Amino acid sequence: YYAKEKVKLDWQFFVIIGVLIGAFISSKLDKSFKLESVPPVWKQKFGGSVVKRAIFSILGGIVAMIGARLADGCPSGHGLSGMMQLSLSSFFAMAMFFGFGILVANFIYKKL
Question: How much is the pTM?
Answer without folding.
Answer: 0.58
